[in-house]
Design brief:
- By secondary structure, the chain is an alpha+beta fold.
- The chain is built from six helices and five strands.
- The chain has one domain: Alpha-Beta Plaits.
- It has a three-stranded antiparallel β-sheet with strand order 1-2-3. It has a two-stranded antiparallel sheet with strand order 4-5.
- A hairpin with a 5-residue loop joins strand 2 and strand 3.
- Helix 3 packs across helix 4, helix 4 runs antiparallel to helix 5 and helix 5 runs antiparallel to helix 6.
Length: 147
């Protein structure tokens, strides 16, 4: 991340995919049109009180990162499924984290050259989470849920 970039760089570079591209987004970035189902399952485990909602499909213009986020600007309580620690976070970082967990789940269970692109996407998402948390002074979210 260039030290001269302005605050909210990540937010400014997030592009919500238009309706006309939603049908191809999941397959293009995650290799399956059913990836959103896994994201919904992970959200149920990670977002306290999750009861569904409209998910936006997003891309970050400077990286390979693609992710899903709930389509509102609401803070949510996230729970680390391994430690039980809870922390508040906005929808963008919540979506990045839930997408990261869903990709990690796939990567832990499958092997092969076809997954190389998913590893790249996973690394890009985790890098975007760190960039976002540094910009928004919320590194505690990153260290509670990712590191």
């Amino acid at each position: 991340m260039n030290g001269q970039e302005t605050k909210n760089t990540i937010i400014e570079r997030v592009r919500v995919v238009p309706e006309s591209q939603r049908m191809t987004f999941l397959n293009k970035h995650f290799g399956t049109p059913l990836f959103d189902q896994l994201v919904f399952q992970m959200a149920d485990k990670i977002i306290k009180g999750y009861q569904g909602g409209y998910w936006e499909y997003c891309e970050i213009s400077y990286s390979e990162a693609a992710f899903l986020r709930l389509g509102s600007e609401t803070n949510r309580t996230l729970c680390n499924p391994f430690s039980g620690e809870e922390i508040e976070a906005g929808d963008t970082v919540s979506g990045l984290i839930v997408t990261s967990y869903a990709l990690a789940w796939i990567l832990e269970r499958y092997d092969g050259n076809a997954l190389e692109r998913l590893y790249d996407t996973h690394r890009a998402i985790n890098s975007a989470i760190l960039d976002y948390c540094e910009e928004e002074s919320c590194l505690n979210v990153y260290y509670t849920l990712i590191d």
